[in-house]
Amino acid sequence: MSLRSKRLTITAIIIGSIIISIPCLFLYGEAEVPLKYNNRTITGYNCGAVTNVSRDLLFGYSVTLLLTSLCGIFALISLYSVILRIIYKKESVRKKNNYGQNVNVKQGLGNTNNPDGSTYTDAESYSTNLDSTTTSNQQQTNEGEPTIKENKSTVPAEIRTRRKSKTVQILCRIMHKHRFFIMFFLIAILSCISYLPRFALMIAGSVISNFWDELTDVEYFIALCFYRGYLLNTAVNPVIYLVFDTDFRSSCKQLCCRN
């Protein structure tokens, strides 16, 4: 995609968003919300549908916003799927190249350091065997017979530590390998949670004229939290990118250090 196409796409998205948002200026405004507490009625104000607006027009606009949101979510999922496919292809090619280079390096080191053909692929096991042999030889020299009780007592602890470390390494490797999939999945789920309940409440408010008046205080508070759910998406999205995207995190660090 060329730079010109990117600019045209962004411009079209901005213009389309402005066109879709213009009816909000005429369909929504300041609405009174009566709250009852200890036999007292408190009148609050909230951004809601205007009373003198046609319900059919309000319902059609709410459905249009819902369909637009669904199209945006599906477009987001499709775009992320294409990006993931490209990333996994590049990762597979890179791993094949690195594997071939590592095999060549190991073969060269084995031929240079071990002429008899014996190689050690695990440096930790080699050092453990070397320490065990040295301890056994020292005990044979001092006491005349080998004793390996101390080594036997330490082997299970070393094995358990090694297994735990390997498990952590496997989990970290899986998280690192699939970090982009996890990141895109969380972003898509967060978008659904943030926007779909809001549009559902907008449709309910357009169909039922006194929808907000019939809610209790607790129900009104819960519904208002879902209605303002888009704020959650705005606040959490940068955190998700900071956790999973290393390039974005390094760019933020450079920007903060520069300032």
From TrEMBL:
One example of a Gene Ontology biological process annotation: cellular response to hormone stimulus
Comp. bias intervals (Low complexity): 127-142
GO molecular function: G protein-coupled receptor activity; peptide binding
Gene3D superfamilies cross-referenced by the UniProt entry: Rhodopsin 7-helix transmembrane proteins
Listed Polar residues bias regions: 104-126
UniProt entry keywords in alphabetical sequence: Cell membrane, Membrane, Receptor, Transmembrane, Transmembrane helix
Subcellular location: Cell membrane
Disordered: annotated segments: 104-155
Subcellular location, principal: membrane
Protein name per its UniProtKB record: G-protein coupled receptors family 1 profile domain-containing protein
Native source species: Mytilus edulis
Organism classification: Eukaryota, Metazoa, Spiralia, Lophotrochozoa, Mollusca
